[in-house]
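Researcher: Structure prediction, please.
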Amino acid sequence: MKFTFMCKQQATVPGRSKLKVAIIGGGPAGLSGAGFLVCQGYDVYVYEKNPLAGGLMLFAIPSERIPPENVLEGIEELRDKYNVNFITKTKIYGNSKPREDEGDHLVEKIVSLKDIVDNHDAVLITTGTWQSRRLNCPGEKGPGVLTALGFLYELRIYEKGFTKHKPKLGDRVIVIGGGLSAVDAAFESLKAGAKEVILAYRRTIKEAPAGAHEIRKLINKGVKWMELISPKEIIRENGRVKAVVFQRMRLGEPDETGRRRPIPIPGSEVVLEADTVIEAIGEIPTPPFEDGYLGLKLDKKNRIVVDEQYHTTHPKIFAAGDVVSGPSMIGPAIRSGLLAAKSVHLYLNAKKLV
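Model: Predicted structure follows.
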């Protein structure tokens, strides 16, 4: 996967401009931004909380969808050929006590966002979505209930040798959700040896964000698809997950997303036995600061507020990717990082002319 696709043969030698740009977050948006900026001659520093850059491409998404060697090849080119500086196992945060996000297992150092801003000529934030939405239903808290992101991340760091602890699932797994995270969690559960994997979704296969094609592929592999059901309670016995109480749903009028709203059918509960429940109902943005820090703004969905040029309310700070848009696909994140990097370049050029 090439992140320097905007480079030309006559590109400026990296470092010639003597201007330093910090990129916070080494996922697809951050890497595409790094590729563009280093080709313009800037000294680029990528701050990443994991031992490797790559974001969810390396630390969540199954290799069947994105081969990790392709991502690593692009990262190595940035580092070895273009001298991009990768500062790993480092979390950037802008308030006194850093927020705990998923995927923080291997962080060794916390650095203040203000220090990053003070020591660089521009900053591009691309920290993505490292917190999962939760069901908030009775019985949720305790062992045996995982998030898709948490499960996939722990599986990836085990596979890469960063931990000796492999996630334990049991024989019966219920994955709740209809997006790609749910699909990936169900697929990996099956690969891990679960005897029964159920993918449960509150709408129908037509409305599933992952798309009917992806879900049918899962069904062909042995995953059981159940639609128009929504979890109501997780039943425990001696502290362990025993079953999930679902309520059947019907579809009403379209909601704000344009999809028909699921409406509970009273008295229609169904109980499904389970050893493990994996919640895959979406992720939320994880900006490296709280609302108001350094004059920066977040909206009601915790997304960083930017203008059309990806410029935040701080003159030196830009933001791109899922931390701005909310969860998206790899392609839009790469495009967002590239466009934001172009705006950083214009900003730094304008500064030189002053």
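Model: The chain has two domains: 20-130+283-353, 134-279.
Researcher: Thanks, that helps.
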